[in-house]
Structures are given as C-alpha cells and as structure tokens.
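hey so i finally got around to running both of the ones u sent me last week. sorry it took forever, my laptop kept dying halfway thru and i had to restart like 3 times lol. anyway pasting them below in the order u listed, first the sequence line then the structure token line for each. didnt double check formatting much so if smth looks off just lmk and ill redo it

first one:
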Amino acid sequence: MANFRFKLFSPILAGATLNDRLVAGLGALIGIGLTGLIGEMTFGGNPLLPLIVAPLGASSVLLFAVPASPMAQPWAIIGGNTLSCFCGILVYRLVPDIMVASGVAVGLAIIVMALTRCLHPPGGAAALTAVIGGPAVVAQGFSFALVPVALNCIVLVTFGWIFHRLIGHTYPHVPPKIVSPVGTKDPAPILRAGFHVEDVDAALAELGEAFDINRNDLDQLLQRVERQALLRTHGHLTCADIMSRDVIWIGPEDSTETARALLLEHNLLILPVIDASGLLLGTIGLREIAQSGGRVGAAMVPAFTASPDTPAFSQLAPLTDGLTHAVIIQDSAGRVVGLLSQTDLLAAAARVLPAAERTGTPA
C-alpha cells in the first residue's frame, strides 16, 4: 500500500512538487471563476452565449501548472484559442459534413497556430467547439471568436499574470540569457566550454521529437546538470579542504588607498571588509576602488559567502560568472575563517579531474 501511495502521488513533470500543484489548483479555481464572472457581467444577457468556453479549462492547466511552457505564454493562450476558433468557424461554413469538418478544423488550427507561433493544445478544442457548438456559434458567426473566446482568454491571462507575480513566479516566462560580464561579444565564461545551443539543436534533430521546453531553458538545464554531476562525483571535497586560511582583510573605516596597497602587495583581486567585532560587511576590489574614493565602507559590495563544509565545487557557478573572484568562508558563528578563490578551485579541479580519469571514475 505504501509503495502504491508513493507512485500515486509521484509527479510526472520534472521539477514538480505537491505544493506547486496545490497552488496551481488554487490559481485555476480563482482564474476560471473570475473569467466566468466577468463574462456574466459583460454579455450575460445573451442566452445563446456561454459565459466561458470549455477550452479555457485546459488553458488554465497550462497557465497555472506549467507557466514556463512555451504553450502557456500569453500569445499562445490568446492567439491559439482565438485563431483556432476562427479556423473552426470558417471550416464549418465551407464543409457540410460535420465529421469531416471537425477533422479539417483541428488540422487547420494546428497549422495556423504553428505558423503564427502560438501553438496551444486547447486551441484544437476551440476549433472543434466552433464546429459542433450549435446555435450559439451559428448565431454569432465570426464574432464568436472574439466574444466570448478572445475575451475569456484575455481575462484568464491577465489574472494569471497577477497571480504568478503574487506568488513569486515570473510570467510571462523569459528564458534565462547569460551574457559576457565585460560587455563584449564573447560568450560568458561558463558557456565557452562544453556544449552549446547548437549542440542542443543537433541532439533534438537527431531524436526527431518535439519537446515542450524552450531551447534556452533546456540549455540552462543541461548546464546545471553538468555542475550537479561534478558535485555528485566530487562532493567530498569541501571549501575547508582547499580554501586560503591566512585571510588578508581590511576595515570599513580604512581608506581605499590602503585597500589598493594591500591588493597590489599580496596580488589579490578582492579583500573581505570586516568590522571591529569580526563581522563580515562585504568585499572590495580594484573595480570598486576605481569607482569610488574615500573610505572602504562606502565602496564595498556584498560578499558571496559559504560555510567550511560546503562542497567546494558547488561554488563553481558564482566563481565562473566573470564578476565574482572569491567566496568568503564563514564558520557557524559568522567569523571569517577562509577565502575560496578562482585559483583555489581551478587548482583543485586540476588535481581531482585527472585523478578521476586515471581511476576510471566519472568526472
């Protein structure tokens, strides 16, 4: 029974959690109810018009359960349902046989949605609804695609945008884009080695299948998979194992000229800024010194921090973003006990990865 229960509630979508699904259900509940209410207020006096069309139920599943899907974006929902409904109405008028018209309408809707970059699965239902909708659709003609279909979609998408902002999600979804931190045309450092987007496209072409995920999202996911694999195989190596322990630091009341002298004397890129009580306040480097004179406290920037037992390779992402030169290591009491630099991590990788190749361990 326990095994059956585990399988019953096991998510079929990657990254899904039970909490996500509960929130999605709440969003759909409110969104569909609000859409119907506004429909009643707008055209509720017409007994031939439905307050809300059935495809909106499927649209709400995409909008609230998988908001990052390309098929759940605003143009996909509004354009997909509206254009598909137009296709259904047109086919109904041209093809007398209802069964033939149903197939032609859905097929035409798929082609139109693909050409207009608004592929949306519920659009097929919108096209079918226009064919088999009966007197309500016949009486409205092509305007049925605007009211209630387009109006329903606009209301649902508007609420979806508000709802996702309130719960901390980004909607419409914008695929992450990593650019060079120095403003040149070069790819960001993390993207110069390993696979590229072109490799993702080639792999998709080789598989010969379409997947419901944006190419840039897929690229970012695979980049993170690479880092997780490295962390899994070398997670035993902690920050404490490779960090610098004799940390050169500076106080917030010291001058930026003093900070410059320390950086140049010890050939460092950043200095931790620590107050009299030993509390870490931030970091300062030559970039901050060049942009601001006077006291260190006025020029410092927030520090990236980790604990001594943090897996060292988990700091690969911040240390390869092109801007962060070191991670400050703090103990449980908040005291600075070390510094993990790009050089420390690179030296560790140079020793660990060849060793893994010699022993046959996946690296």
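and the second one:
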Amino acid sequence: MQANDLLHLAEQFGSPLYVYDAEKIQSQYNRLTKAFSKVPNLRINYAMKALSNVAILQLLRDMGSGLDTVSIQEVLLGLHAGYAPEKIFYTPNGVSLEEIEEVHALGVQINIDNLSILEQFGAKHPHVPVCIRINPHVMAGGNANISVGHIDSKFGISVHQLPHLVRIVENTNMNIVGIHMHTGSDILDIEVFLYAAEILFDAAKNFKNLEFLDFGSGFKVPYKKDDIATDIDELGKKLSKRFNAFCAEYGKDLTLIFEPGKFLVSEAGFFLAKVNVVKQTTSTVFAGIDSGFNHLIRPMLYGSQHFIENISNPKGKERFYSVVGYICETDTFATNRRISEIKEGDILSFRNAGAYCFSMSSNYNSRYKPAEVLWMNGQGYLIRAHEKFEDLLQNQIPLPVEITATV
C-alpha cells in the first residue's frame, strides 16, 4: 500500500484506524505453501489469535486455510466465518475438561496439552481422535512472553513425561491421530526449529496410527530496515526433505501442519493515528497521538519496535520525536525516533500492525476501540466500525433504583 492510500483511508474512516492489505496476506500464504510444495500433504492453519476479524478469517478461508484456535469463542467465530468443523484445530491451555468436551461436540479437532485432562478425556471418550501437544524443552522466540517450548513453560506435555503419556494412551485405548509442538514466536535460527522437529519425530514413533504432525509456527517477520527474518525458503527445503524421509520411515504419508499467525498478517497491517499535540520539553519533543496502549500494547508489553512514518509529511526534514499516547499512564510507542517533521493534525502510520495489535486492544480509560478496514482490489472496506458510547454500556447493569435511593 502507498502512503496516499493510507492517508485517504484515515480521512474517509477517521482515526485511530487499523488497515489490512489483503494482497500482502495472500502473498505470505502463497510464499509459505510454495516453500513446502514438495511435501505431498501440507495444511496451513491460521492462528487466529493474531487477528480474529471475521472478514480476515473469510479471506484466508477462501485461500484454503484452516484455523488454529485457542478458545471455544475462537472456534465459534471460525464456524461463523464459514469454516467446516474439520478445518478447525483447537489448542487450548489451562481450560476445563468441560470446555474441551463442548468443543469436541462441535466436530473440531482437539489438541490436549496436559496429562490430567488427557487421562480424563481418554477415559470418557476413548474413540475420539485426539492430538497431543508436546513440550520439546527448546528455548526459542524473541521474548520470554512468547517463548513457549522451554522447560519452565506452562504449555505442552514434557518430552520427559512420554512414558507416562504412553501408559495413559494404552490404558484408555485412546485414538491419537497427531503430535504437536510450538517452541515460540520470532524464531531467528531455523536450526533451532529443525532441532525441535527431531524431538517431535522421536515422540511420534511412540504412536502407530498418526495422521499428521503439527510443527506450530513462530516464523519471524522483519520489523525494521535490515531486520533478521526467518528464512522460510531454506526451512522449506530442509524440513520438507526431513519430513518426507520420516514419513517413509514411519510407513505412511502424514500431513504436515503449520499454524502461522504473525507471518501471515503482521506485515499486512497498518495502524493510523492522528497527532493531537506536539509538546516540547527541555530535553524531548513529544508527539502525542489519539491512541495509546489500549489500542497497541506490543511496544509496552514486548518492547517491539514498529516503524513509524508521518504520512502527512513523508518527505519532510527528519527530527527526533518520542511518540506517546493519551492513556493516563506512560504509554510510549517510540523514544527519540527519527521521523519526518510532525505537526498537530498529521497522521502517523505504524507498520507491522496486523498481528497481536487490535486483537489485544482494550477499553482501558473507557476509550473506544478503533475501526478496522480491509484494503482489497484498490478499495477500502470497513470490516469493524468505530465503537460508540453505547458499546461501553452494552453489558453493564446499573444498580436498582431502590438501592441507589438508600445511599
């Protein structure tokens, strides 16, 4: 997308505003499937926690994608978006047996990540196809909050507990159809991914009737100029060869599953915000925008760096600005960042705003959530309206008059 397109959308729909480029999402999906084209059976399950707008789900559905979900609410959204139950994969953490049973009743593939629930579910439903999430004890990911495959992680069943796991399966006569792992997000070194894959292959040998192996995702995308990204093409060559060899050894063509979220939608997203005030102090020039960490929390939560451009003055002389929000806490998006000269009323564009941005937004300070627009075929389509005051009150219940009258 061009800066003029974004500026026009900000004028048309107002700010703050999330914009997603459909063409970029499609190209990332095609790039991944091409990298693993030598695998006979490949399935992409979009990790919808990254961005769960129904229009985005429909776009990926039409490309052939399945869904990776982590809650029953995500499952219901996927069904609402037109996904067949068998195209939805459910990988929760720390949920009740009741929720897992409720999701199973919807016809969705379940993935269990702890021994207690596995044993309980297997005893009650021995014939239901189940996938098992393994913790490979591999530290990977760009931040401790998104590294989920290490030894202290709450996710998955430890590879050291495989003998116990196998006993549960044998005692309940469960139907294990898949093995799953996810080491973390923002993986830089594909050798770490390949090392973890070997652990998954070894675990898979304990089960004779598998249909698929799910390798999770965590592919890193670039966030700034010359940033390192996962080499998808190289990973495709190496893992495809090893996966096909394992299938030959296993005696059956299994399906290889990935569940990318950030890889598919991050670079497609732009967050547009208007500059409310330019504030000069003794040491800093602040650009205060009509947003805060209630709309984009990643810089504060993960220390992530989003490239910021003044699309109202893209060729202006660069100055140093600290870009901050309007929340009544320190919500700093960038500190002393070189940006084209900013004036009040200008529109700033944040790159890489497609993944874990709107989906992590809130109504903190009773602020409204922003609108979302899908840019497709040279046109902007509103896919979520700006919230209004009525939305803040929708589920609130005032005290009865007889109580308030006694206060």
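quick thing i noticed on the 2nd:
Residues 232-250 form the longest helix (19 residues).
anyway thats it, ttyl
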